Amino acid sequence: MPERGFTLLEIMLVIFLIGLASAGVVQTFATDSEPPAKKAAQDFLTRFAQFKDRAVIEGQTLGVLIDPPGYQFMQRRQGQWLPVSATRLSAQVTVPKQVQMLLQPGSDIWQKEYALELQRRRLTLHDIELELQKEAKKKTPQIRFSPFEPATPFTLRFYSAAQNAC
Fold first, then answer.
1. Alpha helices (H) in 33-153, listed in sequence order
2. How many domains does the chain have?
3. 29 in a domain, yes or no?
4. Per-residue b/e over 106-116, b at no fewer than 16 CB within 10 Å?
5. Does 31 map to a domain?
6. What is the reported pTM?
7. Which of 2, 51, 98, 150 has the fewest Cβ atoms within 10 Å of its own Cβ atom?
8. Where is the General secretion pathway GspH domain (predicted)?
9. At 118, which CATH number?
10. Tens of pLDDT, residues 85-141
């Protein structure tokens, strides 16, 4: 007469399946408890790193336009800043409503470089001022990087209404 009961293999399989199921449940609950500002900051950092790598690989000048309530990745084509197309980075990224962004540029070297370019074209001071005002109204990225130059220094802070900056 065969013996009744479970083999060691069957018991180990059941314990493994219970552990696997509980790990999935714990991970689901753990991701929901993350503050929205921290999640938005991590998302930006991941996208920014991918975009910066793309600038080096493709040899293009790229930038990030910080325009609350979100940001957009841009590319310099034919003398104009245009939104990046044909990638998953192309869409305007909107941060959650409870998250605020604060950009602190570390340098205005791009604006100074543009002013020097205008001076080289022998424009009058009034014309240079008008051109700079026009340029400021355009949607140009505040953060720029090229494969051959250092990136624009900046600090971007993500705030939540319920907590301090990340």
1. 36-58, 109-120, 125-137
2. 1
3. no
4. eeeebeeebbe
5. no
6. 0.61
7. 2
8. 40-161
9. 3.55.40.10
10. 766 666 688 888 889 888 887 766 655 665 666 666 766 777 767 776 776 566 778
